[in-house]
Amino acid sequence: MHDYKKHPWTMVYAYFIYILGGFGVTAGAHRLWTHRTYKANTKLKVILLLFYSMSGMYSVVDWVRDHRVHHKYSDTNADPHNINRGLLFAHVGWLCMKKHPDVIEKGRQMNMSDVTDDPLIRFHTKYYQWFHLFFCFVFPAIIPPLLWGEPWMVSILANSFVKYVALLNAVWTVNSLAHYYGNKPYDRNLRPTQNLLVAFLTKGEGHHNFHHAFPWDYRASEFLYIFHITTIGINLFNKLGWAYDLKTVSPEVLQKTVERYGDGTHELNQYKELPSNGF
Q: Who's near 50: CB < 8 A, 6+ residues apart?
C-alpha cells in the first residue's frame, strides 16, 4: 500500500529545488552575469552555475545576450519578448516563434566578451545540455526515493516536470505580467511595472519599474520583503565574502528620479526602505 504521508516532504523538496533553480537565474544569470550588479568569487560562481542548471533553461551566454538586448531595446522590435506584440507573446510565444530580424541583428552586435571570456562560463556552455539534463531532471528526482522512499513516478512528476514548468512560467511572468500590470513609481515612461505577484513568484524580480530605471542595483528593488530570497541570498554571500562590490543606486539619484519621472505612486508604499547593505 502506498504511503501518502511521504508526499508533503516531496512537495517541500520540490519547492526547495524550485527556489535553488530560480536563484541560479535571478542571482546568477540576471544580476551577476547580465548586469554585473556585484562580483562573485569562484566558489559562488560554481554554485550559481549549478543552481542555474536546475532551471533547465538555455545556456548562460544566450540568456545574458537576450536579456541585455531586452534592456537596451526594451519594448521595440529588437526586444526578444516585446510586450507590444501581446501578453502571450511576451510570456512564452517569443520562444515558439522565429526571432524578429531586429532581435538577431542587435544580438550579434551585443558585447558579450565579459561572459564568453570567463573559463567557467565557457566550460558550462560547452556541456550545458548535460548539466541541465542531470541537475534539472535527474538529480532532483532521485533524492526522494532514496532518502524517504517516495515512489519513483511521483518523484519524477513532482521534481522533474511540475517543478520545471512552474519555474519556467514564474520567470516568464517578468517578461509578461511585469510589463503589463502594476504601477510605475520610478519612471512612468517605461512599460515595466511594479508587480508584487511576480516578485513573489520569482523571489524578488517583480519590482520591474525600479529594475529598468536602475538596472545596476543588485537588489532590483528599493525595499526588502521576506520573499526577496535573491537579495537576501546575495547579502548572506556578501557576509561570507563570496559576493562583493554590491552596487546600489544612491538615495539622491533615486529621489530625483522619482520626483522627475515617477507616476506619483511612490509615496503610497508603506514598507521600510532597504538600507544600502541590505540589512
A: 24, 131, 135
Note the pLDDT tens digit of each residue in 63-97.
999 999 999 999 999 999 999 999 999 999 999 99
Per-residue pLDDT, 6? 62
Half-sphere exposure (Cβ direction) of 179: Cα atoms closer than 13 Å: 25
Question: CA 22: distance to chain centroid?
Answer: 6
Q: Hey, what amino acid is at 151?
A: P
What is the C-alpha to C-alpha distance for residues 245 and 248, in angstroms, rounded to an integer? 10
Tell me the residue type at 268: L
273 secondary structure, DSSP code: B
Q: Any idea what the Cα angle at residue 253 is, between residues 251 and 258, rounded to 5°?
A: 95
Query: Residue 201 burial by CB count (10 A; 0-12/13-18/19+): exposed, middle or buried?
Result: buried
Given a cut of 50, is residue 257 above it in pLDDT? yes
The pLDDT of residue 124 is 97
Residues 6+ apart with CB under 8 A from 121: 33, 49, 60, 61, 115
pTM: 0.91
Task: Provide DSSP, 8-23.
Answer: HHHHHHHHHHHHHHHH
The dihedrals phi and psi of 39, each to the nearest 5 degrees, come to -115, 155
Residues 219-256 have pLDDT tens digits of 999 989 999 999 999 999 999 999 999 999 999 999 99
Paired strand residues for 273: 223
CA pair distance 261, 185, nearest whole angstrom: 8
Q: Find out whether 180 and 193 touch, Cβ atoms under 8 Å.
A: yes
